[in-house]
Amino acid sequence: MVYGCSPDEATGPTGETVLFEPNKVLSMRPNPRTADYPGGGAVRFAQEEFNNTYCLLPAAVLVGGHLQRQPIADEGHVRAIYALKSRAQALMKVPSGNGRTTAGPTFEYVAPEDRV
Question: Based on the number of CB atoms within 10 Å of its own CB, is 93 exposed (0-12), middle (13-18) or buried (19 or more)?
Answer without folding.
Answer: exposed
